[in-house]
Amino acid sequence: MIRNGWEIYFHRKLFGEQRRQLKEQVNQLKIKLPPSEFGKHPTVKLLAAVMTGIKEKIVLDPFAPQFSLKGSLRHYGRLKGMGLSDRHRLFFRAFEAEGRKILIILWLGFPRKQGDKNDCYEVFSRMVSNGDFPETLEQLLAEIDVI
Q1: What backbone torsions phi and psi does residue 94 show, to the nearest 5 degrees?
Q2: If we measure between CA atoms, which residue out of 64, 67, 63, 54 comes closest to residue 1?
Q3: Residues with Cβ < 8 Å from 97, sequence gap 6 or more?
Q4: Do 103 and 8 meet the contact criterion of CB atoms below 8 Å apart?
Q5: Greatest extent of the chain over all pairs of C-alpha atoms, in Å
Q6: What is the pLDDT of residues 39-72, one digit of tens each?
C-alpha cells in the first residue's frame, strides 16, 4: 500500500496478526449486528481509527514531533489520539533511504496505564531491548506482510 509517497508495510508477527484478528472480529460483528449497532461497536471503531491513522495521519510526516519518542525509543514513532482511544498506541518505524520512503507498522499497544509494568510503552521498550525489531531496514523488511 502506498500513501502520500510512503510504502506501508505491517510487521507480520505483531501488527500484521493484530490487524488480521481485528478484521476477523469486525467481519463477525458485521454478520451478527444490525447496521445501526455495527458502526458504533468499539472494535469496529478501533479498526477504523487505526487504519485512518496509518493511511491519513502518519503518512503526512512520520517524523513529526507529535509521533516522536525519546531515549532508547528515539528511532521509533507512535500514534496516539487522532481517533484512537486514550488506552491505545500504534508503534511504527519510518525510513527514508535511496529515494524510498518506507513506513513499517510494528505493534498496536494496549493498555496505556502509566506506571504499570504492562503499560504499552513498557512492553514496547522491552520488545526493543529484547531485539524483537531488527535495527536495519533490510532486516525489518524480511519480517513484513506485503499488503
Answers
A1: -115, 145
A2: 54
A3: 137
A4: yes
A5: 49
A6: 999 999 999 999 999 999 999 999 999 999 999 9
Which residues, 6 or more positions from 79, have their beta carbon under 8 angstroms from its beta carbon? 53, 54, 57, 58, 67, 89, 90, 92
Query: What domains are defined for the chain?
Result: 2-145 (3.30.2310.20)
- What pTM was computed for the model? 0.93
Secondary structure class of 110 (helix, strand, coil): coil
Q: Give the chain's length.
A: 147
Average pLDDT, the chain: 94
User: What gap in Å lies between CA 5 and CA 102, rounded to an integer?
Assistant: 9
- For 126, the grid coordinates are 522491552
Amino acid 36: pLDDT:
95
Residue 112 or residue 35, greater confidence: 35
Amino acid in position 112: R
CB 59 within 8 A of CB 3: yes
Residue with cell 519480517: 143
pLDDT digits (tens, 9 = 90+) for 97-127: 889 999 999 999 998 777 788 899 999 999 9
